[in-house]
């Protein structure tokens, strides 16, 4: 069973809730292909009905199949319909209620109608509960006051759905009876408006463009509370998660849920499939956390080679962020969470690549004469007539080829008067013409999930008719410095202090990488303070980069704390600059503890953090583009460690910074990239080719 759009509605039986979003109002949310829009607040039923009706009409006219879910019962316990309407047709109940319910934003007669229904039954009941001050004839205030009305207390669905309320209860916390009375009239009107293109489950086969189903968000309540972001109202989050979850099911899974025994009581979509729903729901908004051993050190290595460390990270890290729909105007710098498919062919129709004259090719060698057709085809103003064999038409760049035209001769190559054009052949069929879809076919995957969207990509999206893409949420990256010696650059430093260089540098790098930068500040060399800051960071960030305190010394509190979580890996990397890298999880949040030395901090950030963060942000592990270029320097190095030199490319050669001293921050600024010297011992002479990696290759 396939649907394109899933619209979930959290209904309400009460009165107008005012203009600002409130709980217990009506919330609606639409999702397609596992991606939900923002939930929308509806202050009352009138607003909601108009909106839903317009939405369904729009989807219908766009040719999209919609499954719309409403969270109230579509029927009553067996026997009620026959007693009330003398019919077993559930729509007879809908109509009976619709004919009697009066509804305006601030008043309705639902309790009176319930009393009227009760009056038709023997005894007292079945409806009960009265939210009004005045008494209503035949409507008891208490459920226990009912007797001998002869109706079952629950539908089969409520027996199966633990915690679901019976439809008879009209007031009190959790009661749903009022929602049913105040919802069925809306459904009746929607159904009348969209017949014969609408079907109601489970009363009718869902072979129509619009399907209406009964939902019960409590089926996914655990996933709802586990994923509800601070500041989003529960009802809003609930419809969002349910819409997204149902739209993420496979057609078979959804078909299985819809496939139930016929009943005139109605039923709840997903009953009996709660485990599958919960599983799909909990996967929707937050990816699974990283495993505790993701930073475990490769066994046996005393000094871990850079390549081994990178391979380990590449293998063990995964995406830690959810996804959202973004317009293409906001897409550059974001990572695609779904393949992007062309909505339309590009070009959409065959057109001319030049200004000239179009005709049916080919044109043989020698002089060719074509009689000119009156009119012309211009970009945006196509010629609608037909061009016959032997005729030609004036055509401009980008204009659609009129019927009968497949070849264009350049205007510079013809002699023309008002009646005819002449030119020297030969000219191949199709010359100077662009075929429809030669660039992109409709439906073709033009970019894959994991792609970091470039400005050029956004142009391609637009050309392919894509206005919105699904991107991973921006990774929230916390940046933290540690060390008693540090102070801010705008403070007065005493002689024992140095300015914190790493934090502004790493913040700027993170911003270039497209992450949401969260400046977590500076931690002193004090374990409990650092702990408080990490706790804070773990609640606000998807990943943290810290610098300093990463070794195993007395004041290396970062590694000591991560050690305590059992997830620390203190990597001693065989590289210069660098060495200690403390990696671990703090409250499930990955922490990259970089060396404090700014040169080492930056190089380690580029070599390890940059590709790792890209993967955690939903992208792919991508080695930086590098170039083999002649050295303007000479150097020899030892075996057993990789070296990175601050370098720049000038006049066809790569030169390196005068000092390899790792405290020389100015060299980072001087450089435009790094020279990478492999682990083995080597001697480099001037003119030898060395590997140069521009900072741009690291996304800077
Ligand atoms: P650590 O890794 O904490 O032992 O620090 C190594 C060296 O880097 C020491 O000289 C620190 O003073 C220096 N350092 C640590 N953090 C920073 C920072 N944020 N900015 C500048 N220098 C730092
Ligand atoms: Mg320190």
Task: Report what the structure shows.
The chain is an alpha/beta fold. It folds into six domains: 5-72 and 194-282, Nucleotidyltransferase, domain 5 (2-Layer Sandwich); 80-88 and 103-178, no CATH class; 306-317 and 475-616, 3-Layer(aba) Sandwich (Molybdenum Cofactor Biosythetic Enzyme, Chain A), CATH 3.40.980; 324-343 and 448-472, Molybdopterin biosynthesis moea protein, domain 2 (Alpha-Beta Complex), CATH 3.90.105.10; 351-434, Molybdopterin biosynthesis moea protein, domain 3 (Molybdopterin biosynthesis moeA protein, domain 3, Beta Complex); 627-698, MoeA, C-terminal, domain IV (Beta-clip, Beta Barrel). It is 27% helix and 24% strand. The strands form ten sheets. Strands 1, 2, 3, 4, 5, 8 and 9 form a seven-stranded mixed beta sheet that branches. It has a six-stranded mixed beta sheet with strand order 16-13-15-14-18-17, with no helix packed on it. It has a six-stranded mixed beta sheet with strand order 25-22-26-30-29-27, sandwiched between helices. Helix 7 (221-227) packs across helix 8. The longest helix is centred in the last third of the chain and has 19 residues, at 598-616. The radius of gyration is 34 Å and the shape is flat. The two termini are 47 Å apart. 44% of the residues are buried. The chain binds adenosine monophosphate and magnesium ion (MG). The site of adenosine monophosphate has 18 residues, from helix 13.
């Amino acid at each position: 069973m396939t649907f394109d759009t899933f619209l979930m509605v959290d209904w309400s039986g009460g009165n107008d809730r005012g203009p600002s979003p409130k709980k217990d109002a009506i919330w609606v949310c639409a999702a397609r292909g596992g991606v939900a829009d923002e939930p929308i607040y509806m202050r009352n039923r009138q607003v909601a009905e108009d909106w839903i009706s317009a939405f369904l009409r729009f989807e219908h006219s766009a040719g999209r199949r919609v499954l719309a879910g409403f969270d109230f019962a579509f029927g009553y316990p067996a026997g009620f319909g026959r007693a009330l309407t003398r019919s077993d047709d559930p729509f007879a109940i809908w109509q009976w209620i619709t004919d009697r319910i009066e509804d305006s934003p601030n008043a309705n007669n639902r309790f009176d109608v319930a009393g009227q229904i009760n009056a038709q039954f023997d005894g007292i009941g079945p409806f009960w509960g009265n939210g009004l001050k005045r008494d209503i004839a035949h409507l008891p205030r208490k459920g226990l006051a009912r007797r001998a009305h002869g109706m079952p207390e629950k539908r089969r669905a409520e027996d199966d759905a633990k915690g679901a309320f019976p439809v008879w209860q009209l007031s009190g916390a959790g009661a749903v009876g009022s929602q049913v009375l105040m919802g069925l009239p809306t459904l009746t009107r929607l159904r009348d408006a969209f017949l014969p293109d609408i079907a109601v489950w489970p009363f009718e086969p869902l072979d129509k463009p619009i399907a209406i189903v009964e939902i019960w968000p409590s089926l996914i309540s655990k996933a709802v509370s586990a994923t509800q972001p601070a500041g989003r109202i529960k009802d809003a989050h609930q419809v969002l998660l349910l819409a997204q979850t149902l739209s993420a099911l496979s057609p078979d899974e959804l078909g299985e849920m819809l496939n139930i025994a016929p009943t005139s009581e109605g039923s709840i979509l997903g009953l009996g499939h709660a485990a599958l729903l919960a599983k799909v729901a909990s996967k929707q908004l937050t990816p699974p956390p990283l495993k505790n051993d993701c930073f475990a050190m490769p066994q046996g290595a005393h000094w871990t080679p850079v390549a081994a460390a990178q391979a380990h990270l590449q293998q063990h890290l995964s995406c830690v962020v959810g996804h959202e729909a973004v317009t293409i105007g906001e897409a550059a710098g974001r990572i695609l969470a779904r393949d992007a498919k062309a909505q339309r062919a590009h070009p959409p129709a065959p057109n001319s690549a030049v200004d000239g004259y179009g005709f049916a090719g080919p044109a043989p060698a020698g002089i060719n004469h074509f009689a000119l057709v009156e009119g012309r085809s211009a970009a945006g103003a196509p010629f609608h007539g037909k061009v016959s064999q032997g005729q030609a038409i004036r055509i401009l760049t980008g204009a659609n080829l009129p019927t009968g035209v497949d070849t264009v001769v350049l205007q510079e190559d013809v002699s023309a008067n008002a009646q005819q054009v002449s030119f020297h052949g030969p000219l191949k069929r199709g010359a100077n013409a662009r075929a429809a879809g030669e660039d992109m076919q409709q439906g073709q995957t033009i970019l894959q999930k994991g792609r970091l969207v470039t400005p050029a990509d956004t142009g391609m999206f637009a050309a392919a008719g894509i206005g919105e893409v699904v991107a991973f949420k921006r990774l929230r990256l916390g940046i933290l410095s540690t060390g008693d010696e540090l102070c801010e650059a705008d403070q007065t430093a005493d002689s024992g202090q140095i300015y914190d260089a790493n934090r502004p540098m790493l913040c700027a790098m993170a911003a270039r990488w497209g992450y949401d930068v969260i400046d977590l500040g500076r931690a002193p060399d004090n374990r409990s303070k650092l702990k408080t800051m990490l706790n804070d960071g773990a609640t606000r960030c998807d990943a943290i980069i810290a610098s300093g305190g990463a070794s195993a010394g007395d004041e290396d509190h970062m590694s000591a704390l991560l050690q305590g979580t059992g997830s620390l890996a203190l990597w001693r990397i065989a590289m210069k600059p660098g060495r200690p890298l403390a990696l671990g999880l703090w409250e499930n949040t990955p922490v990259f503890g970089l060396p404090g030395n700014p040169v080492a901090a930056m190089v380690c950030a580029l070599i390890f953090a940059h590709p790792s963060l890209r993967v955690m942000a939903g992208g792919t592990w991508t080695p930086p583009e590098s170039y083999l270029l002649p050295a303007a320097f000479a150097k020899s190095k030892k075996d057993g460690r990789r070296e990175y030199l601050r370098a720049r490319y000038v006049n066809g050669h790569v030169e390196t910074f005068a000092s390899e001293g790792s405290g020389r921050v100015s060299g980072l600024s001087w450089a435009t990239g790094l020279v990478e010297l492999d682990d083995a011992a080597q001697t480099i002479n001037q003119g030898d080719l060395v590997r140069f990696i521009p900072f741009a290759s690291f996304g800077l």
